[in-house]
Design brief:
Length: 121
């Protein structure tokens, strides 16, 4: 969770939100006010920023990491590392899988492309 703590702290301060956190695979619903506030933040973005944000959120699975990268609160590598915690853990437990590695490499390329696009704006 150490990789996520700075991202969550940033989002709490930046958007005045609260997150329900958990360890494991069970979904944890977020407070309605948090969802509404993050919705407002995304809705305020122009089409170009949304286009760059889309692959970041899709690949990382995290709006928080994508917004932090968009706003310069973290660098690309920090956001990517946080988003890959589960994949890293799986690889440590069971070893590398060739197809999973290929998929991860493709996802990284998409993530990097979105980050580069945002960096050009």
């Amino acid at each position: 969770m150490a990789a996520w703590d700075p991202l969550l702290e940033w989002a709490r301060g930046r958007y005045d939100v609260h997150f329900e956190t958990t360890a494991g695979v069970m979904h944890r619903a977020q407070p309605a006010a948090t969802v509404a506030r993050l919705h407002e933040a995304v809705a305020a973005l122009d089409a170009f920023r949304l286009a760059g944000l889309s692959p970041l959120v899709t690949v990382s699975g995290s709006l928080v990491a994508a917004l932090a990268l968009l706003e310069g609160a973290v660098d690309r590598e920090t956001a990517w590392r946080a988003a890959q915690i589960d994949e890293d853990w799986q690889a440590e437990q069971w070893g590398e899988d060739e197809l999973a590695t290929q998929a991860r490499d493709a996802h990284r390329a998409d993530f990097d492309a979105g980050a580069r696009f945002l960096g050009l704006l």
